[in-house]
Amino acid sequence: MKPRLLICALALLLLSGCVPQPAPSLYSEREVLAQLQEAYGVEFTLLASEPSGSYNPYTGSYIENGKRYTLAPVDDPSLRFEAVDAIQLSNSGPIPVIFPAKYHYFRDSLVDEYLLRHMLRFFAENGSGYETDPLCVCLPAEGWEAQIEGLAERLEQLNGEFPFSTGRPPLNRHGIQFRLDVCPGVYASDYINFYHEEIYGFNAEEAVGKLRDRWECNFVTTSLAFALCELFEENDVAYTCNLPDPDGEDGSPYIRCHVILPDEAEMERVFPLLDTFFAQLGDEYQVPGAASAGLMIDFQKSAESVSWETCRPFQREAPYVWFDTEGFRARVRRSLFPVMADDAGSELIVGDRITIDGDNLIVERGDQTVIIDRSACTGSGADNDGPDGNANIGANGDGMGTGIGSGGGAP
């Protein structure tokens, strides 16, 4: 019994990392060349070697001992690639171990370098700008759809060529970033995976559709924001707006225009301007990507106000850009210019939406907001509020919302 217990205890210690385990050894240079020749079926030349770093970014593991080799195929000496031979440490359990497990890691970047060669040739043939780390192609304003389709075809052709036909996966090049400029400082982009289960290629139609939607979204967001600012400037409307920086790099702009309405007279002047502006927009704005546009129009009584009423003039179905003038104006009037009880009477009627605020009832009635002293209310209805003191008050689905900010003034 005792020997059996001793064996079990020793096994447990080995599994828990409390006893040192034999470490695997690195390949010799001859073994490195043999491994690569067996994998690819061609001969290689070893050009240089050096100690590897202490961390492998591809696996997220620490390296106890390792070498980094520079090599080239004998028949293609201009194509250089790297191979890493390392002893890595594994300590991924919930309890840290004293002696972590060690395992042998050997990978190479031959497939990655051949991929990069084919892509750079394609970019040169089509006059595309590009970056290699990470791989990103800057598409032209005209004919970008054809370039994406052409690249998808080129990648599919690689499946029968060396070294892609060997089944060896790329080390870190599994996709590409497409970039399409919208205006100075703003662009649209999408990342596409082109390697799936030993097959190279991607769905060009899907890639074009996704990039087009993102371009339309960013185009509508920025173009409408600049046009609105021009409208406000021409008509002396007080506003602030966080327009994108022309020297910046923004792939997903989010813009808020804060319009100052100090009184109802200014509101009645501004809303017809907005109604005409949106009614005259061209068809280039009525595109599916506009449904996701990141542009908001906030209405507030002063630049120092920390609350405002928000309008988002977009919807998920055509027309994608739509300004509900009457609906938005009614909401802004209720929020910014409520009618006092002395002007509207204190009697509650069916259909009122009530919020209790201390000694006052804030009543939404049609397109007006009425503030009533609770002592003026009769009956028990004023006390039958919910746990938060609100009755039928919440988010609305008409493209408007009440915003409460912090700090001093509009962001």
Protein described:
The protein has 411 residues and is of the alpha+beta class. It has helices spanning 2-16, 29-40, 110-126, 144-157, 204-234, 264-279, 325-336, 341-344; strands at residues 44-51, 55-56, 61-73, 81-90, 101-108, 129-132, 135-139, 175-183, 186-193, 195-196, 199-200, 239-241, 255-260, 295-300, 307-311, 339-340, 353-357, 360-365, 368-373, 390-391, 400-404. The strands form five sheets. Strands 1, 2, 3, 4 and 5 form a five-stranded antiparallel sheet that branches. The chain has a five-stranded mixed sheet with strand order 12-13-14-15-21, with helices on one face. The protein is elongated and about 90 Å long.
List keywords for this structure.
411 residues; alpha+beta; five-stranded antiparallel β-sheet; five-stranded mixed β-sheet; 8 helices; elongated; disordered C terminus
Which structural class matches the secondary elements? alpha+beta
N to C succession of SSEs: HHEEEEEHEEHEEEEHEEHEEHEHEEEEE
The mean pLDDT is 83
Low-confidence stretches: 376-400, 402-411
Give the N-to-C terminal Cα separation. 76 Å
Biggest sheet record:
5 strands, antiparallel
Coarse morphology: elongated
The total strand number stands at 21
Tell me the fraction of residues in β-strands, as a range: 25-35%
Radius of gyration: 33 Å
**Total count of helical runs of at least 4 residues:** 8
Helix content range: 25-40%
